[in-house]
């Protein structure tokens, strides 16, 4: 049966292989971007969790508002207070993401 095809099998194989290469060339970069966004979202979520835990402690327990650093999962998070109207009313958390970019998230309290 293969002797009757006379090369048709090779052509069919090349067409399907080129189709798979085309599909892979579209979906692999998309998966890389989705993975990067997932990592950034996870890091931001962790930073916000640390920030809001600290804000809750500072506001509810009326503790001192000092700058300090937290190390969690081998990542350093710097919590920095800034003044507004004579009192420390804005807090920021800074960290360096996996890609080496410094990220800062700020919240103001009353």
What does this molecule look like?
The relative contact order is 0.12. The chain has a four-stranded antiparallel β-sheet with strand order 1-2-3-4, covered by helices on one side. Strand 3 (87-96) and strand 4 form a beta hairpin. It is an alpha+beta fold. It contains one helix and four strands. The protein has one helix spanning 8-60, and strands spanning 68-72, 75-84, 87-96, 102-108. It has one domain (7-108).
User: What portion of residues belong to β-strands?
Assistant: 25-35%
The number of strands is: 4
How far from one another are the termini?
83 Å
Helix fraction bin: 40-55%
Order the strands across the largest sheet as they lie in space. Answer: 1-2-3-4
Which ranges are low-confidence, i.e. pLDDT below 50, for 5 or more consecutive residues?
none
Our count of domains comes out at: 1
Shape: rod-shaped
SS-derived structural category: alpha+beta
Radius of gyration: 27 Å
Number of helices: 1
Q: Largest sheet, if any?
A: 4 strands, antiparallel
Order of helices and strands: HEEEE
Summarize the structure.
The chain has 110 residues and is an alpha+beta fold.
């Amino acid at each position: 049966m293969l002797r009757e095809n006379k090369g048709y099998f090779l052509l069919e194989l090349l067409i399907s292989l080129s189709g798979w290469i085309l599909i892979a060339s579209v979906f692999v970069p998309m998966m890389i971007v989705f993975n990067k966004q997932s990592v950034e979202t996870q890091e931001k979520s962790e930073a916000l969790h640390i920030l809001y835990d600290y804000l809750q402690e500072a506001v509810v327990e009326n503790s001192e508002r000092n700058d300090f650093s937290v190390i969690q999962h081998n990542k350093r998070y710097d919590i920095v207070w800034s003044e507004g109207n004579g009192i420390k009313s804005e807090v920021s958390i800074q960290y360096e993401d996996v890609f080496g970019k410094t990220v800062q998230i700020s919240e103001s309290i009353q």
